[in-house]
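Posted in: Structural Biology > Protein-Ligand Complexes

Title: Requesting predicted complex, adenine in pocket

I'd be grateful if someone could produce the 3D structure tokens for the following input. Sequence and ligand are given below.
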Amino acid sequence: MRIDILTILPGLIESFFRHSIINRAMEKRVAEIHLHDIRDYAKGKHRQVDDYAFSGDAGMVMMIEPIDRAIQALKKERDYDEVIYPTPDAKPYTQKTANKLSTLKNIIILCGHYKGVDQRVRDHLVTCEISIGDYVITGGELAAAVITDSVVRLLPGAISDETSALTDSFQDNLLSPPVYTRPAEYKGWKVPDILLSGNREEIFKWKHEQAVKITNKLRPGLLDEEETKDKTL
Ligand code: ADE
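-- Reply #1 --
Done. Output follows.
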């Protein structure tokens, strides 16, 4: 899978991609991630990428021309399945969307800044808008990093334990059950006996019960959407 990220601050997320699971995925050629500076597509001595809003509102708006030039330059090289724009005024991002994106071949993620991008970018160039949560962050870079990480880790070969992405929280609309490792007792705090029993069937049942209990407590709404809860735990 190839992900092209358009940003005015490539340095902001460059190191993240070099220090995560994504780096390993790139080394293994499971994923290709390319950062592009939108300023490289801007005109003039000042390489201007933003301007005042016509409405007279405070805050700068990212101009359409450099963004369009950047997107067209990429589209000349290959076809893209989606042009994604992370923005707080969009539908919330879910594991389901991450799963869907992980099946695509080439995507572009456009990082916004300031007051956002000229609406014509969203109307004519963007094909998919994603909010990573009901809060506002300064730019789209961190959202792009979140989306990229959540998608790349799903690609076959990206993480060493192939099954572990399937047992993540949300993969079956359940939060994850608790996990433990050695020692079996620390300061008198014990690992549940069942996990030491070696009885795989009972452990499987316990994990599922715990997942349902935690989901009920913290995110009961998820259980309403539950369809496949017995499949992956
Ligand atoms: N840019 C700023 N805030 C955002 C959010 N919550 N989700 C996606 N992109 C954003």
